[in-house]
Target: 6-phospho-beta-glucosidase
Amino acid sequence: MQQKQFLWGGAVAAHQFEGGWDQGGKGPNVVDVMTAGAHGVPRQITQDIESDQFYPNHTAIDFYHHYKSDIQLLAELGLKCFRTSIAWSRIYPNGDELVPNEAGLRFYDDMFDELIKHGIEPVITLSHFEIPLHLAREYGGFKNRKLVDFFERFAITCFERYQHKVKYWMTFNEINNQMDTSNPIFFWTNSGVKVEPGEDPQQVLYQVAHYELLASAKAVIAGKKINPDFHIGCMISHVPIYPYSCNPHDIMAAEIAMRQRFFFPDIHVRGYYPAYALKEFARRGYKLDITAEDLTILKQGKVDYVGFSYYMSTVVKADVNNDNDSNVVNGALPNSVDNPYIQKSDWGWAIDPEGLRYALNRLYERYQLPLFIVENGFGAIDEIDSKHQVHDQSRISYLNAHIKAMLVAMAEDGVDVIGYTAWGIIDVVSFTTGEMKKRYGVIYVDRDNQGNGSMKRYKKDSFDWYQNVIATDGKSV
Ligand code: BGP
Model:
């Protein structure tokens, strides 16, 4: 994989920043029926778009109408690349049409032209929690094999249309976070799936996983035919799991728990099911719809690089609350404990820059493929003063420490990292909470949790800091 320069960038996702949810012929997607949550109050998935509910993603930060001035700001920041997603339901409003929506395609043409004009490389996720609602409702989302074809059609449409504008692609965002089957939001947003009464969530998960991995492999195969210079990666959420102690039982508990992180990329990268998964299917008596032809496709559709998000680490202790079967690949971690050496953000996310170096080393040893940190950032409440200044020193400290850890992994450990895109480079709607007050950006957006505000953009202190990091190619950290 040849590339001219390190890809310093910023990342967002269509549903969290575009707005314009029903404009230009866009259909509703699975996030469009999710309400705003709050601290401790989870987001709800409503039956339909209900008039008495507030849906934060409908307007988001209205990039749809601000894209030229926003990209101008990103150019001023000096970004080499910009990661976003193509909202699937802008291109196929229902997901099962034969002909794409031209207005949706044109919107991304205009956005990519604008980025390229400023020398910013687009890095594109095909599915970042934006499955057309119709596919979730009428087909049961990725429980249904038909979704494989719909996704492949969508991918081919994007690859053909943007083959001269976009080189870096990823198939499914954080495909592995749905392994936490205890949280219905992850299943819904990743896959458009609701687990029905009587269904075994783990069995549903593995069937859904298979169809998505197959869809991803088919997209890789098709993409390479359209443009052999494409770099097509997977995207996983990577939260390293440490053993609580050197007790061998803790070490093994962490090792087994890490399969939650590795199950999807093991298949994306190697093109076959790992032994531990096959053993689990047999032990649980799961009969999954996996054909011999599917297995051939998985082998042919391996990814070129591993994209991942890194926000935090976690810890497990073997003798803690082992109520679930600890020999299970999926599910929430029943034996996690706090790390006494690590501070947490206001949202309880453990702040662990050294964990990024650890993550980079583990992923590189396991996969021997280029790595791309496509999300890393610090969600915090920002105060804006009367001069429209935001002194976000804690964000600067977080990002600085993580970038430093990445540079050490590259320089001292020899890990091949192709780029780093800071998450939520401009303030966006938080995914897990639907709030606006959980901000990540180096650019402030005047909008509150209820959708009020001027939508004006202001540079935070972190803007100048990151501009300098990019200008010095990381030497300033
Ligand atoms: C990842 C998602 C992003 C993003 C980020 C931060 O899981 O890929 O879409 O939002 O996490 O999460 P949050 O916005 O909930 O703080």
Notes: The domain at 7-471 is CATH 3.20.20.80 (TIM Barrel).
